[in-house]
Amino acid sequence: MIVLGIETSCDECSAAVVRDGREILSNVIATQIELHKPYQGVVPELASRLHTEWISQVVKAALDKAGLENSDLDAVAVSNRPGLLGSLLVGVNFAKSFAYALGIPVIGIDHIRAHLYASQIETPLEYPYLGVLVSGGHTVICRVDGYDEIEVLGTTIDDAIGEAFDKVAKFYDLGYPGGVVIDRLSRNGDSMAFLFPGPSLNRQEHPYDMSYSGLKTGVINQLDKFRNGNAEATDENIAASFQRAAVGILMKRVKAALNDTGLKRVSAGGGVAANSLLRSELRELEKCGYTVTFPSLKLCTDNGAMVAGLAYRYLCDGYRDDVHLSASARVAAFKKC
Ligand code: KG4
Ligand code: ZN
User: Fold this and answer.
1) Ramachandran angles phi, psi of 152, nearest 5°
2) 294, 276 Cβ separation under 8 angstroms
3) Ligand closest in space to the Cα of 11
4) Would the CA dihedral through 210, 214, 217, 221 be positive or negative?
5) Chain-centre distance of CA 239, in angstroms?
6) Per-residue pLDDT reduced to its tens digit, 99-146
């Protein structure tokens, strides 16, 4: 089964062709990063306008790269929630028209689930496992019992981890996109230069919940102090110290959840799963007997292949959408469709 996967939920315009849910024949990602850079963040109206201009070419490029014709496709899958509504609608309307014209099924895919599933495309992992979804909009620790069986164990109660990376980078004028820049700067920094405390959440009923707004504000509040003659406060040291604290908040909950649930496998996904410190700290778990997987870097951030990969599972189980498929900015409940 050959599935075209379309992803336009934020600032990446992506289309991929995946055979039988595993073989990525193409994964074209046209990024808008340079066009949002002057604003140090994604401008929703600009994002949707660019998707409208680019989508046909991106889909054509994905088919060309795969060496296929439109008529070779068996289904079209598209991220239809959550995300920027205007951007999602571009992908959804394109996907519906394209599928309708070809007389093949269309299916809407939850972007968050696609991130969680991405590692399964390259490195299949037996269920159940602990899922760690870390992106610009979400931070979720969950128990995954199947591609569609996800139970949330903990989540951020305020900012997402990627949002904290992006905001700190923005306030310190480190560059854009923030997560990538902080990761790069950290390699030459001393992560012990500054101690940024993590949250002291007293949430006994939700022990795996996290908070990132306190850390983010704590780091931002030191801006004047750091920028006025503190020799230790290099960009590299601030980045490395912040990154250590941000990853530490997550890893503490991941380890507690693994311990309490008895799960022996863990898999991460989402843009922040590209972070080098997080990847190495997760890898460390292997020394304690856990099996750890995460996607290759290209499948961490937004991409069409993860959409097509997960869609394959749903399609095999008979799920289909129709012309009534619509988009939603909001997160769906993590229960069966
Ligand atoms: O999954 P994604 O592409 O889009 C969302 O669904 O949000 O994630 C984007 C987020 C941004 O916050 C970006 O700064 C972060 O992922 N990110 C990183 C790294 N690469 C991307 N954060 C930390 N380290 C990285 N290497
Ligand atoms: Zn994403």
Assistant:
1) -75, 130
2) no
3) 1
4) negative
5) 21
6) 999 999 999 999 999 999 999 999 999 999 999 999 999 999 999 999
Give the three-class secondary structure for 58: helix
Looking only at the bridges linking them, the beta strands covering 2-7 and 75-81 are parallel
Residue 317 buriedness (CB in 10 A; 0-12 / 13-18 / 19+): exposed
136 Cα to the center of ligand 1, angstroms: 5
CA distance 158 to 14: 29
Pocket test for ligand 1, best of 156, 176, 301 (most atoms within 8 A of CB): 301
In this structure, are residues 137 and 160 in contact, taking their beta carbons and an 8 Å threshold?
A: yes
pLDDT tens by residue, 149-176: 999 999 999 999 999 999 999 999 999 8
State whether the beta carbon of 178 lies less than 6 angstroms from ligand 1. Answer: yes
Regarding pTM above 0.90, the answer is yes
Distance from Cα 113 to the centre of ligand 2, integer Å? 10
- What pLDDT, on the 0 to 100 scale, is given for residue 335? 43
- Position 231 scores a pLDDT of 84
Low-confidence ranges of the chain (pLDDT < 70): 202-203, 333-337
CA of 101 to the centre of ligand 1 (A): 35
pLDDT at 334: 56
Give every CB contact of residue 259 below 8 A, 6+ residues apart in sequence: none
Distance CA 280, CA 32 (A): 29
Sheet holding 75-81, edge to edge: 23-31, 12-19, 2-7, 75-81, 106-110
Go through 265-282 and write b for each residue having 16 or more CB atoms within 10 A of its CB, e for each that does not: bbbbbbbbbbbebbbebb
